[in-house]
Amino acid sequence: MSEDILEQGEPIPGDERSLLIVDDDRPFLARLARAMEGRGFEVETAESVQEAVAKVKATAPAFAVVDMRLGDGNGLDVVQAIRDRRDDARTVILTGYGNIATAVTAVKLGAVDYLSKPADADDIYTALTRRPNERAEPPENPMSADRVRWEHIQRVYEMCDRNVSETARRLNMHRRTLQRILAKRAPR
């Protein structure tokens, strides 16, 4: 194994270095694939849920980095497909629309970490190779009040099975206001 891998964290376990990266942002996908190849992974890429699930069925990877929102569906479907084929796989979810409810779902499906975009290759590598009993470091900056509000809205939205009208009713909020909030990225 290369010194680069040993310096940045735990070496990739065994001979299994297969990594599937699933993201519909082509420039990001290409950059991350190059960065992970430089860290010793054998990288496969996919730009959709359908393509990713087909690759998982052909050969289940030891590692995966999966975007939450893809053009043809939810990245959690890819995590589930990986877990069904290989229960020792280490999967990290990436999202620009992070919220607690989907993070909990991702972990229940077997993801080892949940990172908000923009995440750099070092953060992703660390999450993939972290020992199972090793804890992630707490964030340097706690959530802002706007972020806490946004997280609450997302949690209620997930509890209502992503039904905008029902979520708006429960939050005592106008439906169009809620739609505008849901369309935006998470506040910092």
Q: Supply Rg.
A: 17 Å
Shape: globular
Q: Tell me the total number of β-strands.
A: 7
Biggest sheet overview: 5 strands, parallel
What's the helical proportion of residues? 40-55%
- Give the N-terminus to C-terminus distance in angstroms: 38 Å
Low-confidence stretches: 1-11
Order of helices and strands: HEHEHEEEHEHEHHHH
CATH architecture of the largest domain: 3-Layer(aba) Sandwich
CATH class of the largest domain: Alpha Beta
Q: If you average the pLDDT, what whole number results?
A: 81
Give the count of structural domains: 2
In short:
Keywords: DNA-binding, Phosphoprotein, Transcription, Transcription regulation, Two-component regulatory system. It is built from nine helices and seven strands; from the N terminus they run H-E-H-E-H-E-E-E-H-E-H-E-H-H-H-H. It has helices spanning 3-8, 26-38, 49-58, 75-85, 100-108, 121-129, 145-159, 164-171, 175-183, and strands at 18-22, 42-46, 63-67, 69-70, 73-74, 90-95, 111-116.
How are the SSEs ordered, and which strands pair?
Blueprint lengths: L2 H6 L9 E5 L3 H13 L3 E5 L2 H10 L4 E5 L1 E2 L2 E2 H11 L4 E6 L4 H9 L2 E6 L4 H9 L15 H15 L4 H8 L3 H9 L5
Parallel strand pairs: 1-2, 1-3, 3-6, 6-7
Antiparallel strand pairs: 4-5
Helix pairs in contact: 3-4, 7-8
Keywords: DNA-binding, Phosphoprotein, Transcription, Transcription regulation, Two-component regulatory system
InterPro entries: ActR_PrrA_rreg, Bact_response_regulator, CheY-like_superfamily, Sig_transdc_resp-reg_receiver
Pfam family, one: Response_reg
